[in-house]
């Protein structure tokens, strides 16, 4: 969980990420970053903690966009990273911060530490964090631990049960997110029926507007139809090959747009974000004109057009990609 801390001398706002062991209160990873809360820094912090202390069975976070969006019907980069390590990402109920109470208490402690030492630069914050973790873990007796042990003493005393290292399928993450979203939409629809005399269908449709104003068939799903094989993003209509007609689960992170087949969990369409294309005429853009686009089972003609387009407009990325590599991806 992040804590925003402004060093008092020049009012620079930093973001502090903390990872605390649930049982021992041991601080396994605290870092300070100059950017606002984001998925890249969150993954970097967690990766460092795992490198130092191993892979836990689960990691609990709040429902922030940098951490875990399952309860909002989406999957983040951190969730996918954890799943790849064999760690199950879990989150507290929305609007129920007490679930992460131990971490929230740690935020208060480190903020008090910063207030007492008044860091004057970002570098001084990094130094203070090193001192804080040494003091908190090894010298500060914790009132919530038996015998008021230090977190380090508790960490050394317990028998650790790390993850078995078996990766968790991204398809499972998507299914969980879609189930949460469907449950929330159904609850919203029922409440609307009682309170506003609206039908479940009406409310469900009202909740499913995409950015283009069109309706999705089912909450959290993208349906590509043969008579209109397109997906919509940021005001653009991206035309896709007809062999990709079907129903897909949408996963969007800060850096990727991905559609996964709902039957086998394989990635069918993907491209980097923000969306980048040299096509400026109108809203309709063939997917092969999107930088870094990749599709499942591309035909040779699609691959040739895409590679030629990237070679013309993005020569560096075209040189880095092997033929077919940029356009053929399986989950």
Automatic annotation (TrEMBL):
Pfam family, any one: rve_3
All residue ranges annotated as the Integrase catalytic domain in the record: 1-159
SUPFAM superfamilies named among the record's database cross-references: Ribonuclease H-like
Gene3D superfamilies reported in the protein's UniProt record: Ribonuclease H-like superfamily/Ribonuclease H (3.30.420.10)
A GO term for molecular function: nucleic acid binding
Biological process terms in GO annotation: DNA integration
Coiled coil region boundaries: none
PROSITE patterns: INTEGRASE
InterPro entries: Integrase_cat-core, RNaseH-like_sf, RNaseH_sf
Name listed for the protein in its UniProt record: Integrase catalytic domain-containing protein
Provenance organism: Brevibacterium aurantiacum
């Amino acid at each position: 969980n992040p804590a925003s801390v402004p060093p008092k001398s020049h009012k620079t706002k930093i973001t502090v990420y903390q990872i605390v062991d649930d049982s021992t209160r041991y601080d396994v990873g605290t870092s300070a970053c100059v950017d606002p809360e984001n998925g890249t820094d969150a993954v970097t912090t967690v990766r460092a903690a795992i490198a130092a202390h191993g892979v836990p069975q689960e990691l609990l976070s709040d429902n922030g966009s940098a951490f875990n969006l399952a309860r909002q019907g989406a999957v983040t980069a951190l969730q996918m990273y954890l799943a790849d390590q064999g760690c199950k990402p879990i989150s507290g109920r929305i609007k129920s911060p007490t679930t992460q109470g131990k971490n929230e208490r740690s935020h208060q402690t480190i903020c008090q530490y910063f207030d007492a030492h008044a860091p004057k630069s970002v570098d001084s914050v990094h130094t203070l964090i090193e001192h804080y973790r040494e003091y908190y873990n090894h010298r500060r007796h914790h009132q919530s631990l038996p015998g008021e042990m230090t977190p380090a003493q508790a960490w050394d005393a317990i028998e650790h049960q790390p993850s078995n290292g078996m990766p968790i399928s991204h398809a499972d993450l998507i299914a969980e997110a879609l189930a949460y979203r469907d449950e929330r939409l159904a609850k919203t629809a029922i409440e609307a029926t009682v309170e506003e005399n609206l039908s479940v269908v009406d409310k469900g449709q009202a909740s499913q507007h995409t950015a283009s104003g069109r309706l999705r068939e089912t909450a959290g799903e993208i349906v590509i139809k043969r008579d209109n094989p397109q997906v919509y993003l940021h005001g653009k209509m991206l035309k896709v090959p007809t062999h990709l007609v079907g129903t897909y689960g949408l996963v969007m992170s800060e850096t990727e747009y991905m559609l996964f087949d709902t039957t086998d969990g394989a990635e069918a369409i993907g491209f980097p974000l923000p969306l980048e294309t040299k096509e400026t005429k109108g809203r309709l853009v063939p997917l092969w004109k999107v930088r870094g686009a990749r599709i499942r089972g591309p035909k040779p003609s699609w691959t040739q057009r895409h590679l030629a387009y990237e070679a013309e407009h993005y020569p560096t990325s075209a040189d880095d990609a092997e033929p077919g590599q940029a356009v053929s991806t399986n989950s």
